[in-house]
Amino acid sequence: MSVQEYLDKHMLSRRIEDAVNAAVRAKTPDPVLFISNHMRKSVPSVITKVKARQILDSRGIPTVEVDLHTNKGVFRASVPSGASSGMYEAIELRDGDKGTYLGNGVNRAVKNINEKISVALVGMDPTLQSQIDQVMIDLDKTENKSELGANAILAVSIAACKAGAAEKEVPLYKHIADLSGQTSLLLPIPVFTLVTGGKHAGNNLAIQEIMILPVGSKTFEEALQIGSETYHHLKVVITEKYGAYGCNVGEDGGFAPDISSLRDGLDLVQEAIGRTGYKEKIKIAIGVAATEFCIGTKYDLDFKTPNKSGQNFKSGQDMIDMYKELCADYPVVSIEDPFDKEDWEHVKYFSSLGMCQVVGDDLLMSNPKRIERAIQENACNALLLKVNQIGTVTETIEVVKMAKDAQWGVVISQRSGETEDSFIADLSVGLATGQIKAGAPCRGERLAKYNQLLRIEQELGDQAVYIGEKWRT
Questions:
Q1: Is 125 marked within a binding site?
Q2: Cα–Cα distance, 298 to 287 (Å, whole number)
């Protein structure tokens, strides 16, 4: 296209005249800057380039980062990764070359973005999120995104979402709300990790994490303060009992003292809560990740202690009895993945007891088909949403709608391998999920999410609504 053809196509002569007239009417002291800004707003934005690179996540393992260019700016996104992946989730593409990053490189995914996805998206309107995501899904042609890689597709999807918000000149969370049809914005309750075990830490604790929910806080800012103070009180409690070495942390920032008993961990957290003075404002959540220690139909709570492994096997009914006792003895209001991902019968029965929120993680893997089955069978009552298990912003919005229509809770979740990208903070507000799990109130990649929520609350001002005690509804 020649310059003259471009000018004619976009009616730039008329736009320039309009910009000059607007500057005169505004009596602006800087006409050149005014006209420049006016012109930028008057020309619709399109994607001009998509450039990807390999970066490292919080564990020092490669992941994908994307810079998506439009004629309005450059928009960056990076994707997280979990310690484990399941057969029902979208596939992150790894290089497999053991001589480079132990096989964990993502250069194939990066190449797919730079050579395939970029070509397909150039010229598209960044506000058309569903169309952008569908183009990538069609380009991949697989059900689990294994051709291009969910890590490649998601990075571009998130970057496009940010570009769409910029084009509309609205905050990212507002753009996400518009995309989903969500009419109200909601600050979520933070679910802070305090004690870490399972695959995320080197101690002997089988269960993955003990968390707290500041349900009695009136604002997100207060909730973050409560979480931080409790975390630091816990550090003192652990130091007194186990020494300074007990304050080593797991991959998500939670303390990893050398304990093997869940009750020992809960007692430590209870002691810390007691010292904060916030006892009436804090509830406890447990992330079990039972799939990691399920052997056949039994659960090995000593699976991380080789000389004891096999001595603490529990049946599904034993696990139910244990959870009943824990809910009676501690202020436990939420349990995540209490059984193996294929142990549908026990999780259905436990959910039917109505003792607490029962969150599906490995059970669901953010997979629409698994979620649909769980809804039909009343297998749990909350979704742990991990965007990298789905692969696009559009599909993320769809599964949240499924969960909400079923009157489920929704917990937007981090991964053990995180980046500094704070996208899930805006996602939780825009989709009004009510709960966000971003790890401990420490470490930059975790605080990026919590600090972004502070900014959003401040930006909304009097319009900010924090879910607080209504976190289940």
A1: no
A2: 18
